[in-house]
C-alpha cells in the first residue's frame, strides 16, 4: 500500500471537481471527466428490476443466496463489475507474477498489481513501477504496441477498445497479441468493456481470434453497455482449456476465488442484466450507446475544427486529445478554470499520457453541445 | 479425513498431456487449499441427494440461507429506486465507492449512536464475505492471524489465498502459521486467551457462526485488553448481532478502548434477508492506526476505490429503508449442535441419508468442529417443525 504514489485517479478528479464548485458556486460545471453514463435506463430494464425487487416480498418470489458465479458449470462468471473482477484476478494470480500493460491505460490494472505485491517501487523520473512492462501506445505507432520490443511477462493486460485512447485493435493486431502470448506462454487478460462502441468491424471479443481460448481471459461489464455504473454488473470468461504450466485449469482456481472472496452479484442487478439482453432490452440499450457515440462525433468534430489532434471517439466513448509539449495536469487545470469543464489529465493513465487529455462522450446532449461551444471559444 | 471426503473431481482427469499449457505458474497459495469452499460442497451433496431420492422432501438446514420474504417497506424502496433509474431526475451512475452518504449516516446513527463511530467511518459493501477478502488484501501476506476454532471458513481460506499461512497439516487439520483459538463446551465456547499466541490480526465472530455463542461484555473486554497488550487488530464480525436476545454486546465498540484496536464487519444478509440482494458494511474507527501511526481507514479507502466500485445503488436503497423502518423485529436465532462420537461428515451423511435433512458438518469450520454438526434455523416454520420430527425419529 505504501508503494502507491497517489490517490486512485477518479476520486482525485472528483475531489478537484468539488474544489472547483466551491470556488465557483455559480458556474455550470460540465463533467466530461469520469466515464460515467448519464442517460436513464430503458423502461424494460428498470421495470424488470423493480418487479424482481417486488417479488422478493413474496413467498414464491423470494430468493436467498445465488450461485457465486451467477450460474454454475459455465465458463462465464457473473460479477459486480470489471473493476472488482480485475482485483479478483490479481488475487488469483498472486504476487509472484509479472504483468504487461498498455501505456496509457485504465489505472486499475497497475494499482491492483502494486497492491498485490507484484511490482517494485515507482521510478520517480519515469513514473513507472519497477517490474511492470509498459507497452507504449501513441500516435507514432497508431496506438498499438511494438510487440517485438516487449519483454515476456506472465500476464498481459489488454484493453480494446482502449480506455483512454479509444483505439480498437484490428483482427490482425489481436492475432499478433495472441501469437505473442502463445510464444511466451503468457496469459492475456482482455478487457472488452467498450466492445459495443465499435463501429468499424474490429473484433468485439478476443475469442474471435483462433487459439485465444488457450491463452486469454476476457473481462467485461454492463456499466457502459446498459448504464449500469451504479447498478453493478459484469462478467469474466475463463475458458476451460486455459491452463497453468503444470496443466491445472485456471478456471478451477478462479471458481475457488469467486466462491471464497465473493458472494455473487446482486440478484436484482442480474435480473436487469437479463432484461437488457432480451430482444427489446438490447435494442433499447444499443440506442443509448448510439446516443453516446453521436456525442463522441460532435466532440471529435469540435476538436478537429480547432486544429487539435483528437484520437478515439469512433470505437469508444473517449476522445484522446493531444496537446504536444504540454503537461496534462496544466491543460486540465486551464480547461477547468476557463471553461468549467472537467476532463481527465492523460498522465493519470500512465507516463505515455503526459501530453494528452481524455474527454468522455457520456453526457446529456445539451451539455455536450454547450461544452463544444465553450471549448471552441477557449481554444480557437 | 474431511479433505479426502469432499475433494472435487480430479481437475487433471481430462488432461490431454499434449494440450497447450501456458508458462504461467499456478499460484501456490491456491494449491494449499485442501478442497472447495465449504458451502458449495454442501450444495453439491444436497443436489446429489435430490437426484438419488427425487421424491424425498429434502429440508435444507445446511447453508445459512434466509428463506422468508423481505418486508414490503424494504422491497418497495428497491422497486422505486429501480424504476427511478429509468427517469431523467432519478437516474444516477457511479456512486461513492464508500456508499451513499445517507446510508452511511443511517448505519452510523442506528447501530453506533453514542459509540463514537461516525458516518465517514462506515464503508458500505456488497457483503461481509467480500469485505473479509478486501481486508485481507489490505493486510497483505506478511501478517499473522488468529481465528476461533471452529469458525466461518472465509477467514482461514482468504488467509491462505493471500499467502499468510503455511501448508495444511493433515494430522491436526490446521494450516501452518494460523493461531487457532479453540472454542468448545468445556471452555464455554470462549477461548482461553492465556494460551493464545500473539498475532497481528484476530478474527472474532460474535454471535458465533457456527457455535451460536455470543460473547459477554466481560469476555469482549478481555479480548480488547488482549489485543491492546499485543498491539493486535481485531476484525470483529457482527453479522448476527441482531439475533442477540440477552444483554450481550452487539458491537465491539461497546467495549471501552475498542476503537483503538478493532474494526467491525457486518451484513444485511441475515438481518434483512439480503443474502441475494448483497449489502453489508465495515466500520473502521479513525483511531485505528498501524505501528507507524498511519490510519487503517485511509488504506482501506484506497482498496475500496481501486478494487471495488460500490454496492449496487438499488441494494443501498433497500438498506436505507431497512435501517429507517420501524417495527422490523429480528427473528430469534437458535443454532444448536449436538456432540457425536463419529466424524462430523459421517454424521452429516447419515442425517442426510436417513432424514433427508441437510446440515453442515462441524469439521468444515475447523478441527474444533469435529464432533459437531451445525444446524441452521433459517427455514419456513413448517419445514423446521418437520425437521425436528424427523430428528426425533432418528435419535429416539
Give a structural overview:
The complex is a heterodimer of chains A (about 375) and B (about 400). Chain A is α/β, with parallel strands linked by helices. Chain A folds into 2 domains: about 10-40 and about 280-380, Aspartate Aminotransferase, domain 1 (Alpha-Beta Complex); about 45-275, Aspartate Aminotransferase, domain 2 (3-Layer(aba) Sandwich). Chain A has 11 helices and 15 strands. In chain A, the strands form 4 sheets. In chain A, strands 2-10-9-8-7-3-6 form a 7-stranded mixed beta sheet, with helices on both faces. Chain A has a 4-stranded antiparallel beta sheet with strand order 11-12-15-14. Chain A is globular, with a radius of gyration of 21 Å. Chain B is about 35% helix and about 10% strand. In chain B, strands 2-10-9-8-7-3-6 form a 7-stranded mixed beta sheet, with helices on both faces. Chain B has a two-stranded parallel sheet with strand order 1-11. Residues about 1-5 and about 330-340 of chain B have low confidence and may be disordered. The two termini of chain B are about 30 Å apart. In chain B, α4 runs antiparallel to α11 (about 315-325) and α6 (about 130-140) packs across α10 (about 295-305). Chains A and B meet through α2, α3, α4, α5 and α7 of A and α2, α4, α6, α7 and α10 of B. Chain B: It holds the Pfam family Aminotran_1_2. Chain B: This is Aminotransferase class I/classII large domain-containing protein.
Amino acid at each position: 500500500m505504501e508503494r502507491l504514489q497517489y490517490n486512485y485517479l477518479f476520486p482525485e478528479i472528483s475531489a478537484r471537481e468539488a474544489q472547483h464548485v466551491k470556488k465557483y458556486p455559480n458556474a455550470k460545471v460540465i463533467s466530461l471527466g469520469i466515464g460515467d453514463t448519464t442517460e436513464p435506463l430503458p423502461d424494460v430494464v428498470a421495470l424488470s428490476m423493480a418487479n424482481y425487487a417486488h417479488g422478493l416480498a413474496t413467498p414464491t418470489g423470494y430468493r436467498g443466496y445465488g450461485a457465486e458465479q451467477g450460474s454454475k458449470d459455465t465458463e462465464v462468471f457473473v460479477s459486480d463489475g470489471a473493476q472488482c473482477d480485475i482485483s479478483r484476478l490479481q488475487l488469483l494470480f498472486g504476487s509472484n507474477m509479472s504483468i504487461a500493460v498498455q501505456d496509457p491505460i485504465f489505472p486499475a490494472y497497475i494499482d491492483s498489481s502494486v497492491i498485490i505485491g507484484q511490482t517494485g517501487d515507482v521510478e520517480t523520473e519515469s513514473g513507472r513501477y519497477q517490474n511492470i512492462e509498459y507497452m507504449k501506445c501513441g500516435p507514432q505507432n497508431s496506438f498499438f504496441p511494438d510487440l517485438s520490443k516487449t519483454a515476456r511477462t506472465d500476464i498481459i493486460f489488454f484493453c480494446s477498445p482502449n480506455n483512454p485512447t479509444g483505439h480498437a485493435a484490428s483482427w490482425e493486431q489481436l492475432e499478433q497479441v495472441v501469437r505473442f502470448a502463445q510464444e511466451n506462454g503468457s496469459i492475456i487478460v482482455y478487457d472488452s468493456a467498450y466492445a459495443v462502441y465499435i463501429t468499424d468491424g474490429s473484433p468485439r471479443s478476443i475469442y474471435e481470434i483462433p487459439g485465444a481460448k488457450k491463452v486469454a481471459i476476457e473481462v467485461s461489464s454492463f456499466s457502459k453497455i446498459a448504464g449500469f455504473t451504479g447498478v453493478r454488473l459484469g462478467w469474466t470468461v475463463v475458458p476451460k482449456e486455459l491452463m497453468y504450466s503444470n496443466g491445472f485449469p485456471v478456471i478451477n482456481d478462479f471458481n475457488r476465488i469467486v466462491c471464497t472472496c465473493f458472494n455473487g452479484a446482486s440478484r436484482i442487478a442480474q435480473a436487469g442484466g437479463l432484461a437488457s439482453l432480451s430482444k427489446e432490452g438490447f435494442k433499447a440499450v444499443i440506442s443509448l450507446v448510439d446516443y453516446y457515440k453521436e456525442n463522441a462525433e460532435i466532440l471529435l468534430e469540435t476538436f478537429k475544427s480547432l486544429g487539435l489532434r483528437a484520437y478515439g471517439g469512433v470505437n469508444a466513448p473517449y476522445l484522446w486529445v493531444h496537446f504536444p509539449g504540454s503537461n496534462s495536469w496544466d491543460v486540465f487545470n486551464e480547461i477547468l478554470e476557463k471553461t468549467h469543464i472537467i476532463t481527465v489529465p492523460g498522465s493519470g493513465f500512465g507516463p505515455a499520457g503526459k501530453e494528452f487529455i481524455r474527454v468522455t462522450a457520456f453526457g446529456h446532449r445539451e451539455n455536450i453541445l454547450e461544452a463544444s461551444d465553450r471549448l471552441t471559444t477557449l481554444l480557437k | 479425513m474431511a479433505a479426502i471426503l469432499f475433494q472435487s473431481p480430479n481437475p487433471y482427469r481430462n488432461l490431454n498431456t499434449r494440450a497447450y499449457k501456458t508458462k504461467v505458474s499456478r499460484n501456490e497459495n491456491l494449491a494449499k487449499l485442501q478442497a472447495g469452499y465449504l458451502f458449495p460442497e454442501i450444495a453439491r451433496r444436497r443436489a446429489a441427494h435430490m437426484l438419488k431420492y427425487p421424491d424425498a422432501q429434502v429440508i435444507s438446514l445446511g447453508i445459512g440461507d434466509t428463506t422468508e420474504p423481505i418486508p414490503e417497506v424494504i422491497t418497495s424502496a428497491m422497486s422505486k429506486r429501480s424504476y427511478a433509474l429509468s427517469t431523467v431526475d432519478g437516474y444516477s451512475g457511479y456512486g461513492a465507492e464508500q456508499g451513499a452518504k445517507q446510508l452511511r449516516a443511517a448505519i452510523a446513527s442506528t447501530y453506533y449512536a453514542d459509540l463514537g463511530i461516525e458516518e465517514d467511518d462506515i464503508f458500505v459493501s456488497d457483503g461481509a464475505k467480500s469485505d473479509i477478502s478486501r481486508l485481507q488484501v489490505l493486510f497483505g501476506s506478511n501478517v499473522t492471524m488468529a481465528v476461533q476454532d471452529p469458525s466461518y471458513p472465509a477467514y482461514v481460506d482468504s488467509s491462505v489465498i493471500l499467502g499468510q499461512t503455511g501448508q495444511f497439516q493433515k494430522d491436526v487439520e490446521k494450516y501452518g502459521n494460523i493461531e487457532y483459538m479453540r472454542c468448545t463446551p468445556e471452555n464455554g465456547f470462549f477461548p482461553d486467551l492465556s494460551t493464545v499466541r500473539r498475532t497481528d490480526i484476530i478474527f472474532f465472530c460474535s454471535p458465533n457462526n457456527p457455535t451460536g455463542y455470543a460473547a459477554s461484555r466481560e469476555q469482549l473486554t478481555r479480548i480488547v485488553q488482549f489485543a491492546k497488550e499485543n498491539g493486535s487488530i481485531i476484525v470483529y464480525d457482527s453479522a448476527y448481532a441482531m439475533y442477540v436476545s440477552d444483554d450481550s454486546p452487539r458491537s465491539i465498540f461497546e467495549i471501552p478502548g475498542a476503537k483503538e484496536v478493532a474494526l467491525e464487519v457486518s451484513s444485511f444478509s441475515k438481518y434483512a434477508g439480503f443474502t441475494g440482494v448483497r449489502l453489508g458494511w465495515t466500520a473502521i474507527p479513525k483511531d485505528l492506526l498501524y505501528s507507524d501511526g498511519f490510519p487503517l481507514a485511509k488504506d482501506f479507502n484506497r482498496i475500496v476505490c481501486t478494487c471495488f466500485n460500490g454496492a449496487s445503488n438499488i441494494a443501498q436503497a433497500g438498506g436505507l429503508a431497512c435501517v429507517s423502518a420501524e417495527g422490523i423485529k429480528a427473528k430469534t436465532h437458535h443454532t444448536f449442535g449436538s456432540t457425536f462420537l463419529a466424524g462430523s461428515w459421517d454424521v452429516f451423511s447419515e442425517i442426510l441419508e436417513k432424514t433427508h435433512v441437510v446440515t453442515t458438518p462441524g469439521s468444515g469450520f475447523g478441527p474444533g468442529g469435529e464432533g459437531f454438526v451445525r444446524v441452521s434455523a433459517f427455514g419456513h416454520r413448517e419445514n423446521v417443525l418437520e425437521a425436528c420430527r424427523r430428528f426425533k425419529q432418528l435419535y429416539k
